[in-house]
Amino acid sequence: MGYAAWRGLKARSSSSTSHGHIAVGSKDFTESVLLAEIVAQMLEAQNIEVERRFDLAGNLSHSALVSGQIDLYPEYTGTAFAAILHHQPISDPKAVYDQVQREYSSQFNLWVSPPLGFENTFAILVRGEDARRLNLKTISDAVRYAPQWRAGFGQDFMSRNDGYPGFSGAYGLRFAAAPSEMALDLTYKALASNKVDLIAGNSTDGRIAALDLVQLDDDKHYFPPYEAVFMIRRGVKAQGPSGRDDDRERAMRPLVAVIFRLGGAISTDEMRKLNYEVDGAKHDKKVVVHEWLVKKGFIN
Length: 300
Hints:
It is a single chain. With 300 residues, the chain is α/β, with parallel strands linked by helices. Residues 1-17 and 236-245 have low confidence and may be disordered. Helix content is 43%, strand content 16%. Helix 2 packs across helix 14 and helix 4 (77-84) packs across helix 5. It is built from 14 helices and ten strands. The chain has a five-stranded mixed sheet. It has a three-stranded antiparallel sheet with strand order 3-10-4. The chain has a two-stranded parallel ribbon with strand order 1-2. It has two domains: 3-119 and 224-296, 3-Layer(aba) Sandwich (D-Maltodextrin-Binding Protein, domain 2), CATH 3.40.190.10; 122-216, D-Maltodextrin-Binding Protein, domain 2, CATH 3.40.190. Strand 1, helix 2 and strand 2 (49-56) form a beta-alpha-beta unit.
C-alpha cells in the first residue's frame, strides 16, 4: 500500500493546542500495550495529542475500532483471519495478510499496516527439563506422553477456532484430564511449578527463556501465521473545534509516517526482550518503550 493510499486514513481531532488527536488502543496483555505505547510516544514526540485506551479484553479493541472509539490498535494477522473473519487456519503468511487486508477494508472500512517484523504465534510449551529428558522437539513428539500429562490453557486459546478444539484434533492429543482453563499469566506459573505439564503461551514472551521453557515445533503447521500489524480506521469525518478538518489532516500525516517507519522494525528477539523487561524485570512499560525508541533512533 502506497503513501497516497494511507493519506485516506481519517482520525478524530479535538485539540487546538496540539497538532491533532489520535486515540490509540491495545489488548489486555503486555505485548499489545507495549506496541500501542510505541506508537503513542512516537506521535507525542511530534506534538500529537494521544488518548490511551489500553487493556481492552477479548475482541473489545476490534469493536472499539469499528465503532470509532479508537483510531488504531495492534493486532495479529492470524487472529484477524481466524477469530474476527472466522476463516479456517491456513499457513501461508502472504495469503493470510492479503485476505485480511481485503476483507478488513471491505467489511470494516479499516486499513492493515505493513507487518512490524515479527510473528507472535501460539507457543506450545513444556518444561526444559522434560524436553531434554524425553528428547521432545515437536508437538508430535509430545503426543505419546500427553495421556499422563495435565494441560493448562488461557481462555482465548480454549475458545478460538484456531485454538484448542482444532489443535487437539489435528494432533490427536489426549490428556489425563480435561485441560484447566486459567488466566494466561497463570499458565506460565503453573507449568514452572509442576502444576501442569503443557501450556499454550506466546512465542515472543520473554518468560520462555527466563523460566527455562521449551517451545515445541508445530510440525503439522496447524497454527496460521500471526504477523504483528496495526489495524487503523479510515473514512471517519471528524472535525476540530474550529469546524474544519485541518487538525485531523495534520494528525494523520505523522501517523502515516510512524506506521511506515515501524514496518519491519521490530524483530522477534527485540519483542521478547521488551516483554521480559516488563514481565520479568518488572520495569515500567513507558520507560521500557522510551529507552527502546531512543536506542532505535525513533525519538530523541
